[in-house]
Amino acid sequence: MEYSAVEMISYTGSRVLEDEKIVFVGTGLPIIAAMHAQLTHAPNLYMIYEAGSLAPILEIGMPLSVGDTRAARKACYLKGLCAVFELTQRGFADYAFIGGAQIDMYGNVCSHLEGDVYEKPNIRFPGSGGAGAMAANCEKTIVIMALEKRRFVQQVDFVTSIGFGDGSPDYREKAGVMGSGPYRVITQHALFGFDEETRRMKLLEVAPGKTPAEVQDNVSFELLMDENVKEMAVPTEQDLKLLKEEIDPEGYFLKRVTR
Amino acid sequence: MSETSSKIKNISRIQYDPKPAEYWGPTPREARKKAVAKSKALVDKSMTLKEAVQKHIKDGINIGIGGFVNTRIPAAIIQEIIRQGARDLTLSFQSNSICCEWLAGAMIVDPDRVSIKRAELAWWGYEIIGIAPLLRYLNTSGKIQLDDYTNYGMSARFKAAAMGIPFLPVRDHGGTDMELTNRGKMVECPFSGENVYLVPACHPDVGLVNVTAADIYGNARIFGAQCTCQEIALASIHTIMTTEAIIPTESIRSYPNLTEIPYPAVDAVVEQPFASYPGACYGNYWFDMDHLRYYRGICDEFRKTGKRDGLKKYFEEYIFSCETSDDFLEKIGYKNLRKLRKMDGAQPVIL
Fold this sequence. Notes:
The structure holds 2 protein chains of 2 kinds.
Chain A: H1 5-16, E1 22-25, H2 29-39, E2 46-49, E3 53-54, E4 77-78, H3 81-90, E5 95-98, E6 102-103, E7 109-110, E8 113-114, E9 123-124, H4 131-137, E10 140-144, H5 171-175, E11 181-186, E12 190-194, E13 201-206, H6 212-217, E14 224-231, H7 237-247
Chain B: H1 28-37, H2 49-56, E1 62-65, H3 75-84, E2 86-92, E3 95-96, H4 98-109, E4 114-121, E5 123-124, H5 133-140, E6 145-148, H6 151-163, E7 167-170, H7 177-181, E8 185-188, E9 195-200, E10 206-211, E11 213-214, E12 220-221, H8 229-235, E13 238-243, H9 249-254, E14 268-271, H10 289-305, H11 309-320, H12 325-332, H13 334-343
Parallel strand pairs in B: 1-2, 1-10, 2-4, 3-5, 4-6, 10-13, 13-14
Antiparallel strand pairs in B: 7-9, 8-9, 11-12
Helix pairs in contact in B: 2-3, 3-4, 4-5, 5-10, 6-8, 10-11
């Protein structure tokens, strides 16, 4: 079966989400992954959109951004940013689904800048947006990132979204955040989790045709390897049809980058 | 309460200058005094956008920008501010796209007319359409100062101000570089003994919001995501409100539960359909991706080449040669606006 990198990421994102949970989604592939999960194995999974919407019915099209008016369609609860982020603090959001520019072995994510100096960086990205708050207070954080050495780094340039910090057991507690932290990192070639003891990133699954050594070659820090590294499941014809024909028929996200 | 810190040091590579603990706008006490001094009468506050901006926008003030990214943004008000000019502005918002990029573009075209000194923010970009070229240009060339929070952090800052308290404890920022670079503080909670982060209240001098419907006194209804508009309006010393439609006060009084912004928080009510264009307004119109792309493309060209011609032409065509928002919308054209109205999908609102 022919599938693209973004289709693989969306499908894996869907696989990771469990039914009867709430996922706080970022723009793009997280929305697609959550929609796919709802249409397949998780019909009782609901989304939060940060402009203020809980559990919308996306019947007039996929929202192109988290502030899109379509994300408010037939919601159960429609308020503003304070209301939905307070749901996360209170414990009503099971997953944060975020992206970023860089990630380190403890799952700390940078989406602010590239450079050494905050006041005058080499490159400035849009900023935290909701990501910093989602990674702090949704129960589990799922990160989507392209598997590249320049993104999987020894040290991020700026910590935007908290992971396990320096890996010390009480880092998140001292930081005053409520969620349990990084849970999965999804890439086109590999699925990562985190080791309970050391809180370091651990390879769980590799894409068909790839080896753990090839994955390590694209990561700047030393990965832990699961005792039993599995092969990633691939989307079936039915999954690809859902993704391409029902969820993102105009290809806003799925046609962006293809392998 | 004693100030403390998480153990953030040395996680990232960033170097920074710590910011002094101060408000980048009116203090909570000043804001309270201004509110007490206001007339609380139900008086007709409807006026033209020109009058509203003339009355309230001054050099050196903090403007609070409502909406969220491309949704229900105060686009018409920003255009009028650019037409009339305002220098040394502090911008406060959670996430925004073209409102900030228009102000930044105006600053590049003519810094004697419009300039941004600094921004307290969570996010500045276009989402699916791309990064904001002018934020990148202004920040990497050291031309504006930034103070970064999360979307909740900025929302909580407006909320604290709206509540009349000097700060709010929040469960984010801690353990990230925002803890080090922004003006929030980590403290030990006097009740639980645990670390908790405090973000300072944010009182803009002038809040800018566009709403679904309001009466002539400024009692406003917001349908769709409410973003942080209620908090911004209540936090601000003055609020300029555009509304897609003015509705009778009888309707407000029949369903007072639907009022999201109460009249004392509002100083100017301007009826302006499509006031968020090229952004979206739930129940009215979807966002115009083509126009956002068009302007972003011009900005990106400036960032890459340093040539201001494209920007100058755009501002002349769409802002300076327009007397009013209606003139601008006429250039966009009926057919385009009609299409965007259709793309909203008839989201239900109660007028």
